[in-house]
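Task: sequence in, structure out. Protein: Cell division ATP-binding protein FtsE.
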Amino acid sequence: MRTSPDTADAVVRFESVGLRYGNGPEVLQDVSFSLTRGSFHFLTGPSGAGKTSLLSLLYLARRPSRGLISIFGRDVTAMERDELPPIRRRLGVVFQDFRLLDHLSALDNVALPLRVAGVSEADIQKHVPELLAWVGLADHLNAKPPTLSGGQKQRVAIARAVINRPDVLVADEPTGNVDDRIAFRLLHLFAELNRLGTSVVIATHNEALVRRFAFPRLHLEAGRLAVLPPLAEAEAAGPTAETFPQALTDGGGAAR
Ligand SMILES: Nc1ncnc2c1ncn2[C@@H]1O[C@H](COP(=O)(O)OP(=O)(O)OP(=O)(O)O)[C@@H](O)[C@H]1O
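Result:
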């Protein structure tokens, strides 16, 4: 296969991707970009521009109507359904609507990816409460999602997405329901994960965040994508690595 030097080490590559729902018009048109290991991008654009649609292609919930998508060097557009789960397990996703399991506690929701990966119960009981405490939910470990606020559910969803240190983290408006102080703290969590090697894409309408962190933007307007430079000049100072949950920094992630 022919690869150019800048895409040879891509963990994600979109080439001339188009998406339409049913017989409707294309909501994504000729979208091309690549993500390298350890890259960090904001995904910006007005409401209806196609951000959630693009993310759904990235986390393999949909297939494009045309074009090529390769993830971890594999052409996922041509794959059989039963080939996708091993790739999905390397992706962390924060959904706009959280998608928590209502009958499980916050702790058990976050533990889910670790249990799937066969992590010991002792490690789960050590790492999950620590991460939940770090996102401000120490008092809600046993709470079930229906009893949590929107912002609390969002933080459970974020903890679940990052707990096994995915190779790619995709988050759709992950700070939409929290105040600015928590939003910045969560952004620092993503930045730390990124520093440890995860490629991160964060869809957001929060301009204050985009202005504060020096990450480039994948910017969508009416289904067309442009890769734009960071709005911020330098990354804001935040908590140091020492203050981060051991679940993420310890020996390569709780599930590794
Ligand atoms: N399931 C669907 N069926 C048909 N059209 C859809 C579907 N989902 C999204 N669309 C359309 O695709 C376009 C892009 O929507 P999308 O949700 O991707 O935008 P967005 O940038 O994420 O918007 P927002 O910022 O409001 O979440 C819109 O015109 C929307 O109406």
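The chain has one domain: 10-232.
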